[in-house]
Structures are given as C-alpha cells and as structure tokens.
Amino acid sequence: MRIAAAALAIAVFAWSAAHAAPNCNAAAVTQYDMDMCAGQDFKKADDALNALYRKMLPRYNATDQGLLKDAERKWVAWRDAECAFDTNLSMGGTMHPMVETMCQTEMTKARVKELEAQLKCTDGDTSCNPPDK
C-alpha cells in the first residue's frame, strides 16, 4: 500500500512538473509551452476586447447597442473563419493550434484598436458612429 501511494505521489509530481505553466517571458521550448503561451496571449487580447465592449455598450442607445452586438457576433465568426483559412496549411500539424491562436490574437488586438477609435468618434464624422454619452 505504501509503495502504491509513493508511486502515485511521484507520478502526480512528475505530471505537475511537466505541465506547469511555462515562463512565457523566456523562450518557450516545447510545443506544449508555445501553445500555452499563445493561449495566454489570446486570453489577454480577448479580455481587453471584452472590457472595451462592456465600456462601449452603455454609451449607445438601444438601436445602436443591437447593431454593435450583431457586429461583434459577426466579427468573432469572421475572425475565426479568416484564421481557419489563413492557417489551413498547418492543419493536422502539431503547431496548428498555436498558429491559429496567434492569428486570432493579432486580429483581436487590431479589433481593440478599431473599437478604441470608435469611442473617439465625434458628431459630424460620417466614418463612424459617435457614442450617445
């Protein structure tokens, strides 16, 4: 019984060490580490987009809120489809999830910049929809 418990403890420790969060500030070495770092980068970009969206929404009237919600749903679908197309050559390879996530991250960062510019829109600018508030 003690031997089985010790073996289990060693196995859990080994698994934990092998699957610890990588240091993404250093050069990631394994594909697992690179995937994890790409995922962390995407989460940061997606969190920034969601925070900006939540900031924008109450600044518009009900009609514009509906249009913004629709635009964002369609934008996410377009981003994902565009990245699937752009990264198709790596499909089936071990690096594909990382490459696709990196594409989504860059597109999400670009969308944040677009929406930040939207918040700065002023009355009379016909290239954007100025907030009501």
Task: Give a written overview of the molecule.
By secondary structure, this protein is an all-alpha fold. It has a domain at 29-119: Substrate Binding Domain Of Dnak, Chain:A, Domain 2 (Up-down Bundle). The chain is 69% helix and 0% strand. It has 4 helices and no strands. The protein has helices at residues 2-18, 31-56, 62-86, 96-119. Helix 2 runs parallel beside helix 4 (96-119). It is elongated and about 70 Å long.
Properties at a glance:
single chain, mainly alpha, Substrate Binding Domain Of Dnak, Chain:A, Domain 2, 4 helices, elongated
Briefly, what is this?
With 133 residues, the chain is an all-alpha fold. It is built from four helices and no strands.
Largest sheet: none
Q: Which structural class is indicated by helix and strand composition?
A: mainly alpha
Helix residue percentage: 55-70%
Regarding quaternary structure, what we see is single chain
Radius of gyration: 21 Å
Proportion of beta-strand residues: under 5%
Number of strands: 0
Mean pLDDT metric:
87
So how many helices? Answer: 4
CATH class of the domain at 29-119: Mainly Alpha
- The CATH topology of the domain at 29-119 turns out to be Substrate Binding Domain Of Dnak, Chain:A, Domain 2
Query: Could you list the spans in which at least 5 consecutive residues all have pLDDT below 50?
Result: none
Overall, the morphology is elongated
Order of helices and strands: HHHH
CATH A-level architecture of the domain at 29-119: Up-down Bundle
Query: In angstroms, what separates the terminal alpha carbons?
Result: 68 Å
